[in-house]
Specification:
The complex is a heterodimer of chains A (about 100) and B (about 130). With about 100 residues, chain A is mainly α. Chain A has a domain of about 50 residues. Chain A is about 45% helix and about 10% strand. Chain A is built from four helices and one strand, in the order H-H-H-E-H. In chain A, helix 1 packs antiparallel against helix 2. The model of chain A has no long low-confidence stretch (mean pLDDT about 80). Chain B has one domain. In chain B, about 35% of the residues are buried. The chains are: A mainly alpha (about 100), B mainly beta (about 130). At the A-B interface, strand 1 of A face strand 16 of B. Strand 1 of chain A pairs parallel with strand 16 of chain B.
Chain lengths: ~100, ~130
């Protein structure tokens, strides 16, 4: 996400909150957003125009550090454990 | 208002459930039910997948099974995502990306992301509900 897009969405979030409360400052924020809107790329403007949800209140709600605890090697194939041929005994001990 | 249930968490009107450095990884539409899964390139596991309306790759390993009320994405014989229409406005998700070398999955305890566990949260109106970042 580019810095201008991030700025635009943050301002939009605040503007919508103010607008919902009937605060006249929403209009001031709209004016501030205009030059940022025009600084966005065509692709970014298209993305914003095509939004399928009505209101974005935050860009990201939770940020989780991504590292080797999240992205690792492919797991090895599971070990083959065939069904036993004989009746299983001692379930209570195994549980 | 659409919602996605995952690992005991509720995501309301979120454009992406998961993203990596701002790039969407998991996106869910409730009506009609649709799931997009695009994992980061250059994973240590070399198992990047792209499942969207436009593409499914790698074709030999990815299978998508969809009905009007459910959609599942498989890596070979392992389910990565199983989405079910829970009610008119809600989709329920089961998620397990471990076959791809991504330690993200859900179970009864919650949504596991690496060493983190999330449960009982509601996230609403976010561009990205959970962003994996630096």
């Amino acid at each position: 996400m580019t810095p201008p897009l991030r700025k635009y969405l943050e301002l939009e979030r605040l503007m919508l909150i103010l607008d919902e409360e009937g605060d006249a400052a929403a209009e001031t924020l709209r004016d501030v957003m205009d030059p940022i809107w025009y600084s966005l790329t065509d692709e970014e403007r298209r993305l914003l125009d095509d939004r399928r949800i009505g209101r974005i209140r935050s860009l990201e709600e939770i940020r989780v550090p991504a590292g080797s605890h999240v992205f690792g090697d492919a797991p090895p194939p599971p070990e083959r454990r065939p069904f036993p041929r004989e009746p299983i005994r001692g379930w209570t001990l195994a549980a | 208002m659409s919602a996605v249930l995952l690992g005991g968490n509720r995501f309301v009107e979120c454009r992406s459930i998961l993203a990596y450095r701002g790039n969407p990884v998991l996106h869910v539409d409730v009506d009609p039910l649709h799931v997009e899964l695009v994992t980061p390139e250059n994973l240590p596991s070399h198992r990047a997948v792209r499942v969207s309306r436009q593409e499914r790759s790698p074709e030999k390993d990815i299978r998508v099974v969809a009905t009007s009320e459910s959609l599942a994405i498989f890596w070979r014989e392992y389910a990565l995502v199983v989405a079910t229409r829970f009610d008119a406005d809600t989709a329920h998700l089961k998620l397990d990306l471990r076959p791809l070398g991504i330690n993200i999955y859900d179970d009864f305890a919650g949504l596991h992301i690496g060493t983190n566990l999330f449960s009982g949260n509601e996230v609403s109106h976010a561009a990205v509900a959970i962003n994996l970042g630096d």
